[in-house]
Amino acid sequence: MSTPLLEIREVSTFYGAVEALKGVSISVAPGEIVTLIGANGAGKSTLLMTICGDPRARSGRVIFDGQDITERPTHHIMRGGIAQSPEGRRVFPRMSVHENLLLGAQSQGIDPAPGLEQAFTLFPRLEERQAQRAGTLSGGEQQMLAIARALMSRPRLLLLDEPSLGLAPLVSKQIFQAIRKLNAETGLTVLLVEQNANQALRLAHRGYVLVTGRITMSGTGRELLARPEVRDAYLGGH
Amino acid sequence: MSLARTRRPVLGAALKDAGLAALVAAGLFLPMVGLRTDVGPTGALFLRTRWTDVLLLMAIVFAGRFLLRFWQEWRAERHGPSVQKRLAGPLSRSGRFVAPVLLLFALLLPAIPGIGRYELDLGILVLTYVMLGWGLNIVVGLAGLLDLGYVAFYAVGAYSYALLAQYFGLSFWICLPLAGLLAAFWGILLGFPVLRLRGDYLAIVTLGFGEIIRLVLLNWVSLTGGPNGISGIPRPSFFGLAFTAGGGPGSFADFFGLEPSPTHRVVFLYYLILALALLTNWVTLRLRRQPLGRAWEAMREDEIACRSLGINITTTKLTAFALGAMFGGFAGAFFATRQAFISPESFTFIESAIILAIVVLGGLGSQLGVAIAALVLIGGFEVFRDLQEWRMLVFGAAMVLIMIWKPRGLVGSRNPTVALGEKRTISAAMVAEGRG
């Protein structure tokens, strides 16, 4: 395996006195799709947020592309090749789809044209709805917009927080297909947090299982899918 | 038949609702109106009851609430729930004509026959509030930061000019930018401690900030004169030409060969505040279409999403506070030079509340809406002057009615700042929007 694009070493994160992450270590190689599965409250989203520096890790290191980004302010991290599609999509509801996308490229100060083109090739639906207010889009379209908006900054690492949340199975399948396509065609590295373990493990090259702030298992997607503990705990036992 | 069947639950619900409202009214009015103490002939207080008045008030509340509910239900039944949306289209389109007409009216007002000193003074007052509304609109409407202490920056601007003129003899034109800068500085000073606060918490801190500024002005007697205020604040000149009542060499009237008249200064002040207000509007409209303005609006919509996109929330918030405060400061300096006298009494919380009401009633973020709301509220307040204390009631009723009729404010719709293809026409409308 080549040198990792993202490496998390023994990271512990606290909310006040509550230890949400207890010495978590994971790594993501360039071009990989890595998924993080676990139950509600296991600390999946906290791990993604810690990578972004909000909340900051109390101990341990976050290394991105060979650089220690643990102590950097969030807006620096998010301008340096990492993008996040946050949990619950969080599109700007009163602003148009086009404005939402522009905001994705804004802090980078880069030309939005190539990003827009990529977004519309990936999600043609967004091109049709450019002038529409983002709040009037369907859940699936909002998720497409959230991903496309994150991609506007031309990141090397995309953090996806529960993209299938609240979506119909068919729609979440479309989203997962788009992620696969993106990874295959552009070599984009993806760290995906999911409750929908089945779909996530099928999509990912590798996966980690997070239980109450600790990594309990790791392996390729196929391996994890085959593990009886994973099947019992996260796949509804079938 | 079917009509009657659909109506009956509506009628019942409306009756029930009206009954509840009447009960609430009874709770309020029983002690406030029903019981009254009068001074008897011996000087002792005796209690008088006024139950008929209470019953009358309850009946009015009952009838009003019933009619309102009934009308709402009836309208929903007849037009469906989308009536607001269907109205939004024509309204935003008519905005294209309203704004230029208002602007033209504002520009020509002093030349219209029959417009005298009183009307011009009223125009100045309205425009001052238009400017304050536009300034606060940056903070509340665009950036979504609820600021209840905006009057503090108005006060900083006014006192900056008054004190700089008094102690250093600086002229209005030098002090105007300084007042804006000082207010912006105070805006940043307020911004730092409230960076992590949102919504109600932010509102409370800004409210406290506004009071602190007023109390400092009130108690720092050696500098500000305390409750006595500062008088004899110099009037502005027109490129060095003074507006002296008697004319004389070097005065405005003398230079242009006009008959000396006190109206000249009023007209000048009118155009000055019009220019300042239009400057505020122009800057806001320009910024809205630039990354900073877009970041403000995005922050209003979702702060966490902003952070995930690498937008620096600290600078975004501070610039909003600073710019909003700066325009408040400009307006304050203008206020000082117009009145020639200022005291802390002019900068009480009610001023902040009125400015906020203008922004909210106008429709958060809408330039045209703010202008219309200022015209309606401030102008209307003046029109109903004969009603004396009853005008507060009219004022309150007007606000309630606007919020029922248009809960998102007079101009509640928002056009995208970047237009695509066929939407370009709307973009043109937006450029014109609020210029009045």
TrEMBL record, chain A:
GO biological process: L-amino acid transport
InterPro entries: AAA+_ATPase, ABC_branched_ATPase_LivF/BraG, ABC_transporter-like_ATP-bd, ABC_transporter-like_CS, BCAA_Transport_ATP-bd_LivF, P-loop_NTPase
Keyword Transport: yes
Record Pfam families: ABC_tran
Domain ABC transporter, chain residue ranges per copy: 6-237
Keyword ATP-binding in annotation: yes
PROSITE patterns: ABC_TRANSPORTER_1 (PS00211), ABC_TRANSPORTER_2 (PS50893)
UniProt GO molecular function: ATP binding; ATP hydrolysis activity; branched-chain amino acid transmembrane transporter activity
Domain of life (superkingdom): Bacteria
Keywords: Amino-acid transport, ATP-binding, Nucleotide-binding, Transport
Family, as annotated: Belongs to the ABC transporter superfamily.
Protein name: ABC transporter ATP-binding protein
From TrEMBL, chain B:
GO MF annotation terms: branched-chain amino acid transmembrane transporter activity
Annotated localization: Cell membrane
Membrane-spanning residues: 12-34, 54-71, 97-116, 145-164, 170-189, 201-221, 268-285, 318-341, 353-378, 390-407
Family matches, as Pfam families: BPD_transp_2 (PF02653), DUF3382 (PF11862)
One GO CC term, this protein: plasma membrane
Top-level lineage group: Bacteria
Record membrane topology: Multi-pass membrane protein
InterPro entries: ABC_transp_permease (IPR001851), LivHM_N (IPR021807), LivM-like (IPR043428)
Sorted UniProt keywords: Cell membrane, Membrane, Transmembrane, Transmembrane helix
Domain High-affinity branched-chain amino acid transport system permease LivHM N-terminal: 14-108
NCBIfam families assigned: PRK11301.1
Name recorded for this polypeptide: High-affinity branched-chain amino acid ABC transporter permease LivM
